[in-house]
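Before surveying the methods themselves, it helps to consider a single example record, giving the amino acid sequence and backbone structure tokens:
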Amino acid sequence: MRLASIFILSLLLSVSLVAKKKGAPPMTSGAPGDRTCLTSKCHAGNDLNSGKAEIQINGLPKIYTPNEIYDITLSLTQKGAKTWGFIATAADADGNAHGELLTVKDQPIQLLDDTRSKKRTSRRYISHRVDGIKGPKKGESPTWTFQWQAPDSAASTTSFFFAFNAGNGNKKKTGDYIYTRTIDVQPPKK
């Protein structure tokens, strides 16, 4: 009986660790109606945005051109961090998808749908995969690249919501840092 209990506990723990390594769950970007990996308790131990990470978000225009495709690159550095992650989404003023998120070949990223909320939006999410959590060296994240195709009309501002994880790599929920950022991209003037 004791051996069976140990086996079941080990199985549950390994399933839990594998699930987290697949990427951030949808709806953890910090967008309106979303949580973060801190509030959903995937990562814990530090207050939101309390660390000293340097976050780079490049490629977003100040004003978008309808239907234009933009390359967006993300990276961060934080002393001592060993594992990394991100999730992002783009939304209009009503919280619905605005434009289209696109993966880039050979990038360790994936698209996720809003499948868990009771009040579903049309938002999609883009996140790291398990092969995208290790940086080139301790303290440096990988550089993730994805694309955003602007909406086909200049209807409204697009808000990008990003959540990042700088983890200590201890395979536990504690000691990790979660950061959020929001960037607004304006439509062209009519």
Q: What stands out?
A: The chain has one domain: 2-185. Residues 3-21 have pLDDT under 50 and may be disordered.
